[in-house]
Every structure is written in structure tokens, then in C-alpha cells.
Fold each of these.
Amino acid sequence: MTFDPDAAGAPGSGIFGLPFTRDQAGIVLLPVPFDATTSYGHGTARGPDAIFDASMQVDLYDRRLGRIYERGIYMEPSDETIASLSESARALAAPLIEAGGADPKKDAAAIAKIDAAGERVAAFTYDHTVRVLKEGKVPGLVGGDHSTPLGAIRACAELVKGGLGILHIDAHMDFREAYEGFTYSHASIMYNVLKSVPGVSKLVQIGIRDFGEGEMDFGIEQGSRVHTCYDDQWAEQMLRGTAFEDLCKDAIARLPQDVYISFDIDGLDPALCPRTGTPVPGGLSFHEASLLLWTLKQSGRRVVGFDLVEVCPGADDEWDANVGARILYKLCGTVT
Ligand SMILES: [Mn+2]
């Protein structure tokens, strides 16, 4: 194989312009083009394709994380059945969301169909993730909205003995129970994880700055299982002279040895993801996100899987996908 990591990606090459087959790869990425219940703005279902295209621009040597590509990275082809499932579920959900949320009685038939689509996606990502883990590879999911990784997280938690920690980067807690009436809502992912995946022993949230009081109370009720780092609190501590890296170290020290990273792009400053479904001012800069991932790597923890969700490409502007591809590459770089 002749492969020059400093050359432009050859036509027909894989993600990041890499030449690896699935067999050769240590990291297998699964595109999940699904965003049935995104409440404000949509288009994250087009995220995986746009990230793939933008990934060709990413330089392969990372000053901190080194030759990330040497792990071997492969992205599965997009599954057309998931894309069409997303479209049909979205067509049912959109008018209900527009009306302010689904009515459990009046809209029962539509809700059942939308929830069934969510279950299909969970089964799909679970099966794929189990297969990748059994092969001794590391699974990475590329969404789609934040409902998509539930099955992947379940599979990773089942593999790990002694408890899986989740490093959750997001503007939102995602603790809503059946947000707008939908069980598998993007705003409910961590509620569903905590309720239905007992193998998750710890959830550490970073970037949090938009949440309901009920969500905050739900997090507090979980006791030591949930640790939320509020974005404004970190900003205030930094203004008073605390180093960002020390805040990262304190957060990461709370995680067990085995970690799954769930990276919602809206955890970043919205200047880096202007088209994402629910942008919120504040958030991590690109350098802060990079340093956070580096600090996790330096801690010696094992990243057993990860996802990148809510990247929403523009029709004729690849900025969101460009940032997404670079975060995705660094996520690959956290894998040992
Ligand atoms: Mn989220």
C-alpha cells in the first residue's frame, strides 16, 4: 500500500482520505442519518455524508495526538433504510412539533410509529456496535441527532466490567422524559441512558448551559452517578484565574477507567456549529475541546466507543461539517 499521509486524499479513498478496509481498521465509524424529532432546525441526517466529504481536508498529523490515522479508520457506507426511516418519521413528527408537541391521546398512532422508528435505530446501532466490539475494534457513531447513540451506549456498557463512564459534551443535559411526546427524542438521550442502561455508572457533563429546572433536579436525584459541569460556572472560575486544564482534570478524575464519549456539537461555541438544531451562546472553543480530549487521553482512560452528533451541514457551506470532521478526527485520537 502506498499511502502518503501528507498528500491530498486520493479519489475513492475512505474517510479522511485514508486507504483502510474495514478489516484493516481499528476504529469503525457508523453513519446514522436519522433526525426524526429535532425540534428546531433540522438536517443533521445529512451530517454523516457532509462530514465524510469535509474529512478530506483534515491534515492527518495532530500536534498533540500524533499519527491518529495509524489506528486505521474506516467509515461504513450509509444505510439507506435508516435515511428513509428518518424521513418518514420526521414527516409524522414535524406537524406535531409545530403544534407544540404531541398529544398522547390524539396523536397516539403517530407517536407509536415515531417511537418504533427510534427503537429500530437503537436496535441497528446496538447490533453494529456489538459486532465491532466483538472484533476487538472501537466503534464510533456519526449522527444524526442525539437520539441515535442509545443502542451503541448500551452495547459498550454491556461489554465493560465494572461500570462505563460517559463523558458528555453538550449545551443540554438531555434529561427530558419523552420530550415533545417522543420517547426517543434527541433531548432525552441521557434520561434514557440513565433509566435503561444500568452498566453506565457515571455521567460527566461538560458545556451545559440550557436546561429546565426539572432536568437539573433529575440530575441531582441521581446523586454521585451524575456530575454536571455548568458552562457559566467554568467560565466564572476561569475569569477568577482557574486554568481550564485543571477544570478538565477534575471532571475526568470522576470518570471510571472505561469511558464512552458522547459529543454533541452544540457543546461548542455556536460560531463553530451555526446550523446545529439548538445552538446556545457560550460553550467550548475549539482549543478547549481539543485540550479536554487530550486531558482525557493523558489520564490513561480507555475510550471504548464514542459518538459525534447534531452536526448540521449547510446547503452550500461546509463550515459545520468542516469543524465536525476535525472533532471526529480528534475523537479517533483519544482511542489507544
Ligand atoms: Mn444533546
Amino acid sequence: MKLILIAARAKNNVIGKENDLLWRLPADFKRFKSITSGHFILMGRKTFLSLGKPLPNRTHLVITRDSTFEVPEGHYTFQNFEEAFTFCNKLNLEELFIIGGGEIYKQTLPMADKLMLTEVEAELDGDTYFPEFDPKDWKITFEEYHPTDEKHRYAFRFVDYERKNSK
Ligand SMILES: NC(=O)c1ccc[n+]([C@@H]2O[C@H](COP(=O)([O-])OP(=O)(O)OC[C@H]3O[C@@H](n4cnc5c(N)ncnc54)[C@H](OP(=O)(O)O)[C@@H]3O)[C@@H](O)[C@H]2O)c1
């Protein structure tokens, strides 16, 4: 199973503040939707709560240490990553998308095969970060620049990184 981290980060690695995003970039939402639709998406309990309700057409896997935490039918909770990965492996998933937040990216980056990042061209003040990684370990396989316009306050680039020694 390929582990794919999908995230939007500012130039200083900020990804969120007060359990919310710091930008509204419709083209980024659109890409996120098209990439993750029909797939299983794994997230931390805080990111799940920040969504308000499950995103349509995706199976949500929520990591929490709270064994009483409930999610709607058709979605699942796990008390650690091992349980979640065992569940996915039993289903023979080809890909699992890790959608955040900071705690979850940090713990899964060492296992990730691919990063699909939206690199937002701004330095912003926040409280949650994407973990540092060494660009030497990754090769860029896709890059697309989007300038600012009336719907996009910040310019940004979609950049896909694949781990150099990934199978
Ligand atoms: N820009 C982006 O691409 C992006 C994407 C997603 C989220 N975000 C932002 O990121 C922020 C949320 O991130 P966050 O780091 O605060 O929280 P998070 O990673 O979404 O969730 C953290 C929670 O996950 C659970 N957890 C973490 N590690 C665990 C483990 N090893 N075993 C069991 N449970 C574990 C814990 O839940 P319990 O406390 O219930 O045990 C923990 O409190 C928000 O601001 C959100 O908007 C940004």
C-alpha cells in the first residue's frame, strides 16, 4: 500500500491555526477533492472535527486515543497507526491518503512514499506545522504554478514529491 501525504503548507511550514486552515484556495480544494474522492483518507481526531462532517465519497479513518470517540457509519476510528494500517492491508488498498493534521503528518512522514503538497507562497502565523523533510531524499515528479487572482489571495504551486528509494 502506498502512503501519500497530501497537505497545503506556507513557506514557513505553517498548515493551520486554531484548528482551521489559514487560506481558502478554491483550486486547491478542487484538486484535493479530485485526488481523494473514492479513496480512504486517514486523519487525526482534531482534523476530523475541523471538517464538521465527513467529506462526501471518501472513507474516513480517524486516529484517536479516545476509545469512546464516534464517527458516522461507514467511517472508522483507530487507537493507533498499527491498527489502522492492519485494517487497510486487509482490504488490499493500493493507496492511503494521509490528510493531516500536524501530529499525524509528523508521525507518518518517515513511512510516506509520496507527498502531494500545495506550496502556498506566503509566510503566515499559525500554530500547526508540516514536518521538515530533506529535499535530497525526494524527487519532484510534478509541479504546477498558480498566480494570485480574484479568488486566490496567495500564489501557490502544486508539487508532488516521490521518495527516491520508494518501491
Ligand atoms: N493545511 C493542510 O493541509 C492541513 C491539513 C489537515 C489539517 N490542517 C490543520 O491542522 C490542524 C490540526 O492538526 P493537529 O496537529 O492539531 O491535530 P491532528 O493531527 O489533526 O489530530 C491530533 C489528534 O490525533 C490523535 N493522535 C495523534 N497521534 C496519535 C497516535 N499516535 N495514536 C492515537 N491517536 C493519535 C490524538 O487524538 P485524541 O486527542 O483524541 O487522542 C490527537 O489529539 C488544524 O489547524 C487543521 O486545520 C491543515
